[in-house]
Automatic annotation (TrEMBL):
Keywords: Lyase, Magnesium, Metal-binding. Homotetramer; dimer of dimers. Its cofactor is Mg(2+). The lineage of its organism: Bacteria, Pseudomonadati, Pseudomonadota, Gammaproteobacteria, Chromatiales. It comes from Rheinheimera lutimaris. This is 2-methylisocitrate lyase.
Length: 294
């Protein structure tokens, strides 16, 4: 068993990869697949929790507990470090402190906290509003101060670029760095040059959010690595693909009266059981209870 904390594993993964790819895993099972595939770090998306677990839009409607439940499920099923979307932290300094402590207890390696107002929106949608620089710095300070595990990774996300431009966004990022943030999440960046401006200005690692159908082009990890980006996030990529596959299955069953046309698009029972280590559980059952059956 590893004696490393989740936060230590996450920090080691950042050091070992330039850049580190971090994939969104909407539930425990997809997290197991990502781990088996060879990924080294996982992400729990706030939009993902809202959309997938609750059928809600990403507008700050889910609670700390809602997210912690999904953290516990994922961290119980894998040994990879999990970065978690803490949105705006669910309130003032004491609420943010609870967010740090509860997410640590749930097994998260770290979180990102953003500078949007509580009535937040997806970072790639228009009309976002942000809090003042001072209020954001207070959010970061409250996070750093609340750490019960010094390795818990505190990432400050700034959504300022859209509303205030590059210089203001970098000024915020620098203020968050000075307040103790371990990394900066530069949200909804348009160009590689802008990423470079962030990475040049900052000492701490910078994350690029490469989410589909948003403001940021789908830059390759090599391009991002070349401009100094340390982490590349794919928050909802697998989720979007799963959704399209599921929709296709539902439509096909209705249209055709059976599922034959879509069976080829399905993961087989054997594959499912392999990822779940199903057979080792069955063997254990046989071992434990075979004497009684005779
Ligand atoms: C990263 C993000 O915060 C998320 O919740 O996954 C979203 C992703 C998205 O909506 O595509 C965001 O960028 O705001
Ligand atoms: Mg989010």
């Amino acid at each position: 068993m590893s004696t490393q904390t989740a936060g230590q594993k996450f920090r080691a993964a950042i050091s070992a990869n330039t850049p580190l790819q971090i994939v969104g895993t909407i539930n425990a099972y997809t997290a197991m697949m990502a781990e088996r595939t060879g990924h080294q770090a996982l992400y729990l998306s706030g939009a993902g929790v809202a959309n997938a677990s609750f059928g809600l839009p990403d507008l700050g409607m889910t609670s700390l507990n809602d997210v912690c439940e999904d953290i516990r499920r994922i961290t119980a099923a894998t040994s990879l470090p999990l970065l978690v979307d803490a949105d705006t932290g669910w309130g003032g300094a004491f609420n943010i402190a609870r967010t740090v402590k509860e997410m640590t207890r749930a097994g998260a390696a770290g979180f990102h906290i953003e500078d949007q107002v509580a009535q937040k929106r997806c970072g790639h949608r228009p009309n976002k509003e942000i809090v003042s620089l001072d209020e954001m710095v207070d959010r970061v300070k409250a996070s750093v101060d609340a750490r019960t595990d010094e390795s818990f990774f505190i990432m400050a996300r700034t959504d300022a670029l859209a509303q205030q431009g590059l210089d203001a966004a970098i000024e915020r990022a620098l203020a968050c760095e000075a307040a103790g943030a371990d990394a900066i999440f530069a949200e909804a960046v348009y160009t590689l040059e802008q990423y470079q401006a962030f990475t040049k200005a900052l000492k701490v690692p910078v994350l690029a959010n490469i989410t589909e159908f948003g403001q940021t082009p789908l830059f390759n990890k090599t391009e991002l690595g070349n401009v100094g980006v340390a982490m590349v996030l794919y928050p909802l990529s697998a989720f979007r693909a799963m959704n399209k596959a599921a929709l296709n299955v539902y439509q096909s069953i209705l249209a055709n009266g059976d599922q034959k046309a879509v069976v080829d698009s399905m993961q087989t029972r054997a594959e499912l059981y392999d990822f779940l280590n199903y057979h080792s559980f069955e063997q254990k059952l046989d071992q434990l209870f075979s004497s009684k059956q005779k």
